[in-house]
Amino acid sequence: MGGVPSTPRWGSAAEMRPAETAEYLIGALVGEKSYPLASDYWQKLLESPLHLRWPSHRVLQASQLFAQNNCKTRHLAKILVHLAWCLQECVSASGVPSAALVRALNALYISSVFLKYFIENAKSDHFEELHLSLDENEAKPTSFSKGGGPGRFQVKIVYGILLAENYQTIEQLVMHSVLSFLGKVDVSTNTYLLHHELLNFMLIAMSTQLLSGPSPGPDDSHPFIDAMMVQESSLVSLVVSKLLLNYIRRPNFPIDSSSYSIFSEVNQTGVLQRVGSAAANFVLLPFNLFVGSSGEATRSPLAENSLNVLLILIHYRKCIETDYVKDRGDHSSEPLPKEDACFSENPYCKALENAQDIEFDRLDVEGNVQNGPLVRLPFASLFDTLGLYLADERSILLLYSMVQGNSAFLEYVLVRTDLDTLLMPMLETLYNASRRTSNQIYMVLIILLILSQDSSFNASIHKLMLPNVPWYQERLLHQTSLGSLMVIILIRTVKYNLSKLRQDVYLHTNCLATLANMAPHVHRLSAYASQRLVSLFDMLARKYNKLAEMSNNKMHMPNGESREEDNLPEDTTAELHIYTDFLRIVLEILNAILTYTLPRNPEVVYAIMHRQEVFQPFRNHPRFNELLENIFTVLDFFNSRMDAQKMDGEWSVEKVLQVIVINCRSWRGEGMKMFTQLRFTYEQESHPEEFFIPYVWQLVLSCSFSFNPNSINLFPVDLPLEKQDSFVGEDGQKLQSGGLNGLEQQVDVLV
């Protein structure tokens, strides 16, 4: 660490009333002397404009000194208490006072820098070095005024714990104040910056998760996020509603900076380098973050941070001690088995799942009474906003969270007539799968699978016609139905996965399950989509034949003889069974179309007739022959009708289609066997937190938040990865995406 002076050296600033300069005040904060909670020092610190531009090494030096002395001074706890009081004043006042705003922002900036240093460099599992309590020897003030003097807040200090109203700990007090401000104070020109930096502070406070392993355990300690989980339901609902409204409304940073004239506009990269590193410059106004060179707001950091915070909150899971854990004794170092893990209820997740449309009161229709306050949202605006921003992976995750957890929003989506608003960005994401993360592809496929479980969705997507699809490069798609495009893209995704060295079985399963759900409702499938559907069988058949050949060669190989095929995976037989199931599903898809919708799909009949040779090798296969009987029944019917036609000259595509269309009208399905209709459903795995908690933090780190990679235990860091399977943090650090190991997709066949 090197020799660190007990107080920073101030140079010429000492000549100008050193007790009031920003450098002196910060130096006193990190120094050895402990200032009581009621000292006027805190008012001077929080009301002084902090125009400091320290180089990174000085900030790091100050952070190290602060960490060294905080165990005695408890200054981190005290500045957090003052932050809570400033926010309470802002909430209780009719309008946010400018003086309180200044104090709150200064307390926020300072505490954010040092809190992040403490978390990144934590040595204990329970973050004891934070010392989030007051010393027993601390003078026991009876009250405080709005400005920090006597007369406002009644507090008691007992056994080092701050008790204020109903809050048992400092972290509960400060997080209640943070959440109260976010939930109750509207975003305005005056309050925008405080709202934004409070969200940054929440990200820092919740980043203790990055130090834990991927499987939450009863010994994990996350003081701030745990404090947020015990807030009253009314406040939780307000916060969830405000975060979503920020995402929907996307308020821009006020260009007119006159309200922030107390701050410096400097050419540095963001507030305290995005409050992302303790080795940051003390600067206060990130104009270059919010405003482009043209002077116009380029994006909405408030909306993005609101989404970050919301995703972390709703996917957090607190593992609690069970009787099994108690029976093991306190000295067991073995991890808790998954089946014995017990998690407390997440109020933010519950609030999101119970959110209702502000335009429709379900209680009036169904007569159900909900316990506690409900989140009311404009579903129409949320639907439209999601459609605009689904290129952002975080928006994909929000959409997944809504359709998977909130039945009211899912129902709303399913009755919309403009489903292309959501589907087109998702299909474009699948189209560009090689440039997307694997987790993003999974999320999109799961959303499509969830939607395809509804028969009205499957019917409506074939009625919605698209004039063109500009991002589809292989061929021009004019007047193609949304359903046909979805079939094309899902099959293309399977083909892309087949071309990879390591193929993903889950990806195949999701694509085929969605296609199977759609099959009984296919209506006028386009010629190109029909061709791709038959080619899908051909692609999987080639893979199946290759696996079967390798398996047979291995079985007939003399003992001790080594061949190149010995490098086959040990589970080749298992893979062969998997692709057998895939081929059966494709045959089930074709059967469903031919059984239930043949008269409305002449192009499918044409595609099967055109490539009928691909089915012939499997006609006598014991796993496929029953399903192929219907296909050959259709082929026999239409081949006989073709043979009966007297044609002058050669057959053309148009003439063949004309014969098919005419004979589709007389098709009665004689000789067709009826099979149980496949219906696949998605079920979230029993421990989704093992996937979602690391995944959410990877998304946050990839866009707007940096963290010391050497401190991260939540997921592997700095591993060699393929481009499409990696995230890059703000500092350029590569982070492993982790696949979908913690989230198994349970695809059930419902009879």
Brief overview:
This protein is mainly alpha-helical. Helices cover 50% and strands 5% of the residues. Helix 2 (40-47) packs across helix 5 (98-120), helix 12 (301-315) packs across helix 14 and helix 16 (379-389) runs parallel beside helix 19 (420-431).
Describe this structure as you would to a colleague.
The protein is mainly alpha-helical and 751 residues long. Helices cover 50% and strands 5% of the residues. It is built from 29 helices and 14 strands. A two-stranded antiparallel ribbon has the order 1-2. The chain has a two-stranded antiparallel sheet with strand order 3-4. α7 packs parallel to α12 (301-315). It is elongated.
Which helices and strands appear, and what pairs or packs with what?
Layout: H1 22-30, H2 40-47, H3 56-73, H4 75-92, H5 98-120, E1 143-144, E2 153-154, E3 156-158, E4 161-163, H6 170-184, H7 192-206, H8 223-229, H9 233-249, H10 272-275, H11 287-290, H12 301-315, E5 319-320, H13 323-328, E6 342-343, H14 347-353, E7 356-357, H15 362-366, E8 376-377, H16 379-389, H17 393-405, H18 407-415, H19 420-431, H20 438-452, H21 455-460, E9 465-468, E10 478-481, H22 482-499, H23 505-518, H24 527-555, H25 572-596, H26 602-610, H27 625-644, H28 653-664, E11 680-683, H29 689-703, E12 726-728, E13 734-736, E14 746-749
Parallel strand pairs: 7-8
Antiparallel strand pairs: 1-2, 3-4, 5-6, 9-10, 11-14, 12-13
Helix pairs in contact: 2-5, 3-5, 4-5, 4-6, 5-7, 6-8, 6-9, 7-12, 9-12, 9-14, 9-16, 12-14, 12-29, 16-19, 17-18, 17-20, 19-20, 19-22, 20-23, 22-23, 22-24, 23-25, 24-25, 24-26, 25-27, 26-28
Keywords: Lipoprotein, Myristate
Family: Belongs to the dymeclin family.
InterPro entries: Dymeclin
